[in-house]
Amino acid sequence: MWIEVICGIVLYKVLRMFFGNDDVLDVETSDFNAIFSVATRLEKLYGGKAYVGLRIPDADSGSRQNIDLVLVTRGEAVVVSVKNLAGFVSVNADGSWLCISDHKHKEEHHPDPVAEAKHQASVLEAYLEQRGVSLPEGYLSSKVIISNPKFRTLNPDHFKPEVIQYENWVQLKPEPKGAFSGWIKGAFRAAKKDIQESTHQQLQTILSTAPMWDRLELKASKYVLGEFMEFKGKNEDIEELKYIKRSKVGRMIVQKTSMFGFAPTRLQVLYYFRDYRTEASSSSEGKEVTVRSSTEVVFNPQNAKKVRKFKLSDITSLTLSA
After folding, report:
1. At a CB cut-off of 8 Å and minimum separation 6, what does 192 contact?
2. Closest-CA residue to 256 (of 213, 180, 300, 315)
3. Are residues 202 and 241 in the same domain?
4. Residue 14 is part of which domain span?
5. Is the pLDDT of residue 203 over 80?
6. Any residues with CB less than 8 A from the CB of 23 and at least 6 apart, and which?
7. Domain named NERD: which ranges (predicted)?
8. Same domain? 225 vs 136
9. What's the order of all strands across the beta sheet hosting 315-319?
10. 135 touches 70 (CB < 8 A)
11. 239-282 pLDDT, tens per residue?
12. Helices in the chain by DSSP H: which ranges?
């Protein structure tokens, strides 16, 4: 019997070594996944470009304002706050939300999301003006999108019109060129004058180079926003990865697994050097190295109480903010 148990443990470890450690995916990624899912769908619905995970300097508070995403088209720019809440939600008299969570029926209090999104839009507008872009009146707006189908309320009419509730969110259809559907025009978009091409390009350049969270993409299309700290592992592997730091590298991609007989499984990592002469976060010039799959990325997720360690074998890519 003990021989069977030992063989089972060995087999389990071997399978984890070759196919990755799924335990790392128990980190709470659902909120981040919801943001990226909404960003992708908005781009498909309205075109334009969605900028995710911005950290815009707020001159008034001296801190940085976190913005889930900003959708930019020729017709408008929208600051979008994504709420991935599950449970019964009610609106208090001051605009704040009370959520009775499905998880252990825990009460969660949330400041007025509409007021927060409007404040984020005002901080973003001030930041853009500082960098030389003055937006036409009415071009920048804010919305709150409910992305979770388990979001429930007894009084949906109590929510402000800026809130796009889930049942409306899933009913949106791609917008025909040169036309607005009735619901989209009234609830999400309004007929607005296109900004000049030069202003549009300048706005995109500023947002693509604005401060933002570092981004981890894990296997199974799971995302984590936060701050890259360092690599952990064998000295020779860390030496190979020493050039991967935000001052030098914009993106790192874990390409494929290399197997050398009975040696530890190794991964090929391709990283692209940052080119400050261009608008892109990194140039086409890159370097490929091979390191052990057990090498770890130490990462501090946004709003997390402690840092996390992710094995390279569980990672698809790492994008570093400038």
Report:
1. 75, 76, 138, 139
2. 315
3. no
4. 2-20+213-319
5. yes
6. none
7. 30-147
8. no
9. 286-292, 266-273, 249-258, 315-319, 214-218, 222-232, 296-301, 308-311
10. no
11. 999 999 998 999 999 987 766 555 578 899 999 988 765 555 55
12. 2-19, 30-46, 113-130, 166-169, 182-183, 197-209, 235-240
Same domain? 79 vs 55: yes
* The predicted structure's pLDDT at residue 322: 81
Considering only CA atoms, which of 75, 77, 103, 76 is closest in space to residue 88?
103
**Do 166 and 106 share a domain, yes or no?**
yes
Q: Bridge-partner residues for 98, per DSSP?
A: 90, 109
* Burial degree of 31 (CB within 10 A; 0-12, 13-18, 19+): buried
Mean pLDDT along residues 75-94? 95
The total of structural domains in the chain comes to: 2
How large is the average pLDDT for residues 88-105?
87
pLDDT-derived band at 154, boundaries 50, 70, 90: confident
In a domain, 37, yes or no: no
Q: For residue 278, what pLDDT is reported?
A: 56
